[in-house]
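Example record

One chain of 131 residues, shown exactly as stored in the release files.
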Amino acid sequence: MKRRGFTLVEIMIVVAIIALLAAIAIPNLLRARQNAAESNAQATLRTISTACESYAAANDGNYPTSVTTDLFGATPPYVNEDYTLPANNPRQGYTFVCGTMTVGGYSCTATPGTAFATARTYTITTGGVLQ
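Predicted structure tokens for this chain:
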């Protein structure tokens, strides 16, 4: 009687091939996730900057002094959500802080969390200059 099935060597070869494919794919997936988070951080900073510039255009060149009251609390609001609130941070691994907001200008920063230790920090300043 002939036995049917796989030998131990055949199964070990298949497991080794799957492990090799996983070793190649996982770093690429993590890198793609980090790139997506960085792109989202840049887009969010541009959204805040556009709202600040629109606010200044409507208020005789005076920039907002608070995201919460001047941009989010306006009627109609300049932004749909307050990105700087603790409830909204972190967003895809980034924390957003608008440290300098005066009638003369603004500066907002996106800082990566511990999930993306190698990710970059981004800052946008008056005039929409992203650094």
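Notes: Residues 8-130 form one domain.
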